[in-house]
Specification:
5 helices, alpha/beta
Length: 151
C-alpha cells in the first residue's frame, strides 16, 4: 500500500503542475480471482475510503466503473446500492456497462440498469459508455437509456 500511496502522491504533483485532475478507477474482484482474501486495492468502500482519507487532494477523485462495483459486491457479498451510497462522495466520473455479476465483460445496459435511479444526481459528471461489439444504432439506444432526453 505504501508504494501505491507514494505513486499517487507523485502523480498528483504533476497533476497540479498541469492543472489536471487524476482519477483512480475502482478495481474489480471476481470469483475467479478471489479465494476468501481480497488482495486488490479499491474494490469496495473500505479500501476506497482508506485511499481518500490517506490522500486528501482536490485533484484526486474516483472514476467509478459501475460494472466493476457490481461484480465486486456480488463476489464479496455486499449490497450494491449500500456500497454506492457510501462511496459516492468520492466519485468524479463514471464508466457504464453491465454484466451478470461474475465477471466484467462490458455488456450493454439493461432497461433496469441499477445506476439509472442515481443518474440525475450525477448528470453533470463525465460518463463513459464502456460496452463492446455494438452497432451505432445500439450505442445510440444505450445513450438514450442512460441520459434520457438530456433534460
Amino acid at each position: 500500500k505504501k508504494h501505491f500511496i507514494e505513486s499517487i502522491e507523485e502523480i498528483l504533483i504533476l497533476a497540479e503542475d498541469l492543472e489536471m485532475d487524476f482519477f483512480i478507477e475502482n478495481n474489480v474482484v471476481a470469483p475467479f480471482n478471489y479465494d476468501g482474501t481480497n488482495f486488490l486495492l479499491c474494490t469496495e468502500y473500505e479500501e476506497i475510503s482508506w485511499l481518500f482519507e490517506t490522500i486528501v487532494h482536490d485533484r484526486l477523485g474516483l472514476l467509478l466503473d459501475t460494472a466493476h462495483l457490481k461484480v465486486s459486491c456480488q463476489t464479496l457479498g455486499l449490497d450494491l446500492n449500500e456500497e454506492f451510497e457510501k462511496i459516492k462522495p468520492f466519485v468524479k466520473a463514471f464508466h457504464h456497462s453491465d454484466n451478470d455479476g461474475t465477471k466484467d465483460n462490458n455488456l450493454p445496459l439493461p432497461k433496469d440498469y441499477w445506476f439509472l435511479d442515481y443518474f440525475d444526481a450525477f448528470r453533470d459528471y463525465v460518463h463513459v459508455l464502456e460496452v463492446k461489439s455494438l452497432e451505432l444504432i445500439e450505442i445510440k439506444a444505450q445513450l438514450k437509456l442512460l441520459i434520457g432526453d438530456g433534460n
